[in-house]
Write the structure tokens for this entry.
Amino acid sequence: MTQAVTSFTPVAIVLISALAVIPISLSGRKPNLREFWTFLAGFMKLALLYTLLDPVMHGIRVEWELCQVLPGLSLQFRVDSFGLLFAFVACTLWIPTSLYCIGYMRGLNEHAQTRFFACFALALSATAGVAFAGNLLTLYVFYEILSLSTFPLVAHHQDSEARTGGRKYLTYLLGTSIGFVLPAMIITYQMTGTLEFSSLGIFSDVTKPGSLLVLLLLFLFGFAKSGLMPFHSWLPGAMVAPTPVSALLHAVAVVKVGVFCNLRVITGVFGIELLSDTSLDNVICVIAGITVILSSLIALTQDNLKRRLAFSTVGQLSYIILGAGLAESYGVKGAMLHICMHAFGKITLFMCAGAIFVATGKKYISQMVGLGRRMPFTFGAFLIGSLSVIGLPPAGGFISKWLLLTGTIESGHWYMMLVLLGSSLLNAAYFFPIIYQAFFGTAKEEDAVAIQEAPLACTLPLCFTALASIVLFFFPEPFFSLATLAVGG
């Protein structure tokens, strides 16, 4: 039986970056001091997370109850292995992303940089709140806080295109969460009397399969940050935001919160055994599989690099949901680990896209012929990020995709193996031509100049995350151990 201890540490981790908003906002006229508060909060979060690693790895669950809302329902934090894995990914990547923001925002002389960094910090607090949510109510509250705190980031440029993208962003995310998730939570509470997470699920054996199907669909599509089709178009629409925001949205906070919430519901509300017994696992696999293939095909047609990466993200997120839908330990472990591996690979790719824009002003793939010789570090990192997303060694994405493929065999969902392999081929088809023409294509005369990388503050973070993707292939701990512990072996 899992031992539980009461500790304020998870609350402190959530609050640190939220409280950092105050000094960040007050230091607007002193950019270096403003960014100091950002980094201080980031390192403090990581330090506190490391204090939780040992107890969680020894099966101790860390808890803190904020307040009672209804009988059997409270706002509470609970740190388990899966939540800690996700929090580590988000908080680790916040630091290089913040450094990248400095190079990008100052390199382009962007406006409202203080507001940008303040909203960035608040978004990380909401992400940590989701990671440590002890029940569905707490999860929902911080999910909504994340939507609201990232809206100013999406609409940062404040032009008509940004306002349109921002409206679509809020309409999709708030509309689905209020219209689908909230009713599903109310119905679940009425049926079970609780919204607590349990590895065995919270529904009784007599619950009708039809009711379970409706609730499952409400939760899957209601957490629209996961990008399941047809509720995915907010994601490419959010590409109007500055590239550091795209990196945050597509690798660290927003989309990963979406799939994290879906995995919590699948494993902690329904339970793997119930899904398998009622054949609801097939429903999850089909929905995710369709999204995987269609998004990969659409990505092939995109010339705008950020939009190609956006549709790639839609497909990669569905890998995670598909893994949970396999209702088998390898599949679920692969899904959890893919949150980490994809995060490092995809944030590298988005940082590369931003560095290319800062250094050359180019954002279309057709304009990038020969740029690899001009920006070797950036395109070298792009190659590594691509390998991770495709699932090829020596990048970390290979490990999570291997587990997912093993899960298709162990669970008997053989047709899903074809989906994963076919999607990986499509991944290669929309990434490798970019790399080939960048290094081996014949550049125009005006582009055939000496090496000219983006500012160091842009280049260093993408090199770090690319290197981390390789390191994770050889040394996947502690993420692998946390995922293994989460699924019980």
Remarks:
- The chain is about 75% helix and 5% strand.
